[in-house]
Write the structure tokens for this entry.
Amino acid sequence: MEESRNKYGNNVVTRGKKLSLPRRLAKAFINPFTAILIGLAIVSAFTDIILPNAGEADPVAVIIITTMVLVSGILRFLQETRSDRAAESLLKMIKTTTNVRRQDVGNQEISLEDVVVGDIVHLAAGDMIPADIRIIQAKDLFISQSALTGESVAVEKTPNAIQSNYDTLTEISNLAFMGSNVISGSAKGVVVATGDDTIFGEMAKSVSDKPVQTSFEKGVNSVSWLLIRFMLVMVPIVLFVNGFTKGDWPEATLFALSVAVGLTPEMLPMIVTTCLAKGATAMSKKKTIIKNLNAIQNLGSMNILCTDKTGTLTQDKVVLLYHLNIHGQKDVRVLRHAFLNSYYQTGLKNLMDIAIIQRVQEEQDTIEELRGLADKFVKVDEIPFDFVRRRMSVVVSNGKTQMITKGAVEEMLSVCRFAEYEGKVEPLTDDIRAYILQKVEELNADGMRVIAVAQKNNPSPVGAFSVADESNMVLMGYLAFLDPPKESTAEAIKALQEHGVRVKILTGDNDKVTRCVCRQVGIPVDHILLGSDLDAMSDEELGKAAEEVSVFAKLSPQQKARVITVLRNNGHSVGYMGDGINDAAAMKASDVGISVDTAVDIAKESADVILLEKDLMVLERGIIEGRKTYANMIKYIKMTASSNFGNMFSVLVASAFLPFLPMLPLHLILLNLIYDLSCTAIPWDNVDKEFLAVPRKWDSSSIGKFMLWIGPTSSIFDITTYALLYFVICPVAVGGLMFHQITDPTMIALFIAVFHAGWFVESMWTQTLVIHMIRTPKIPFIQSRASLPLTVLTFTGIAALTIIPFTSFGSSIGLAALPLSFFPWLLLTVLLYMVLVTVFKTIFVRRYGELL
């Protein structure tokens, strides 16, 4: 045993390594947004703290920026740690054992991890296959391989020699594989592969690959580079304009760096993380675990959902769908006879027997003929099922003796001499036989598994029944079985389509079963692509076909991942939902991987989202939550970036014409801080229903256009405010003198302080009120209202900043009290500004199709 373990290794599948604490911290804190801020904090540390003379150091900017980074990183770290722990608790399994026989030891129960190559494994119904094994002895062995292949129907395994005509290893009849489980029967097998050498292990390796870059990550990177490009253009221009016009290059450098800080939405990492965390918290209340915070926004951007069928859309169990006479009409007599056959057999009841019994139990209260059936008959004898005959019979009596047989259609026809045709017992002619086979083919074409039911009266003397008595029987009808859709599937797919998300089926199951399920849940099945079709296609051909085809069947795990990859390469944001090991690679290839409650461990590990309930409607709620998250993030980015750009553009104009700096660096930072604090309620803002109706993707070019369109509108009124302050308000404050007429340094300082205060207040009013203008394409306060927290915070910010120039704190930072005559002009400016922004945003929507 030890020799085998040393040679082949432990029976443990290598899974994705858990990140260490330092790496998890780095992941939470290091992203493109925080990288910009960290860079600015380092520069500010040099310019504001290290380089200035003693007593002149000003750490305010560094503290503000560092605080933003810390709050954002800690919030993300805590939320993702909480989600990881919840997911880990799902993955903790009861210790599973298996029965093995070893030389000199005999039979013993050992942990799955301790199984080695060469062990003889004993299997019974309900057992997990502990490793890849070769069957050496079997009795009525049926195994479910759905976690590996997606095939919903259990497959029979026998110790027969390997057949030569097979497409995949899982089709070989004398091999059973780790990850599958015994449905019925018993067997012995010798272990031929363990751990990573198994098929399950090979699939798990593909999951450990580096995940793809999602649409959210691409969007965040593009926005970050957009902001960096704007900074790289604006900062040097501001530096040179101020350096040449004022002559004070150190002050110009400091001011240019303040412009860089001013251009950056400092709260962006925190707002983004808060939006994502809020979405994750909302989903957790709906019994959904968001393992990766970014997955919330990826859900919102998703416009194609690819999904496995078995266990995801379907219930992963066999249900009796129809009990029909040979004309395909519902017939309770067929169900009654099938029940007696299934109920009275003493062998291991398979899934179809259980489905028949459950159906009768469900309907016996409403159908008199089914009530108390078990009490009305006495079992006389039975002829057990075997895989040669592929049928089984029971003999029952309730005054008359009757043999009831059910089994595979062809085998049943071979023992029937008559059929119940048009209400009469007629000889089974070739025409009737052809008619029966046609009806069965129609049911098979709908993806159903069909067995036949037959009976005959007074078959033979009691106690002398044998296979020979299965002859001259009367065929009654058929039983059609199917793995049915979950109750919420059709409704969920309809809801997804209404929200602009196309659903595509990617399954390992056969095309007939898949076609039937798709029809039941409302997915078009005009054309189905099979795995063999994919192998004959180039990526370009598959990319075109994948746009049109909604259903893919008989796919391997790698083929599923390939379909998702080509769809993503076509520009789609693609989600994948599955529950088996055969779905794990597809989850990794998608923008957002979704696992369901019954999934295998590897699938749960690969997923970004885990649904704890079978109700798929939670998917729709997740998508809406994702779009709300995106809406509030993009609101902050667009309104802050455009507002900051407008302010900086105004500063640039003012720097060129004013004989002093239009605003001190500290004023810029304080203005941004109070504005940003008023934005902290944006994650809780309301979102227009129209915005939630379609998928949303990050588009940095849209942000750039928005900045260039909406930003300069504020600059128009900033410039009029400059003129008003310079030529009207400030002269009033210094006794009617213009700036060039003043010689008293104290009066010069007062003139500049009033100017700074005026623009400080006007900037806050316009910058904050524009939140309400830009958050919706509708008319603010009338057609669309912000949430109460956002409204309260924004107006509190305006009030607080308006008061600052009248306080001692305002005096200490170089501001002076404004004359009351300034405020009517301010109100007029703000009103005209809001009117102009409304006009511009209407034009913007008409030109580019959307505001946010």
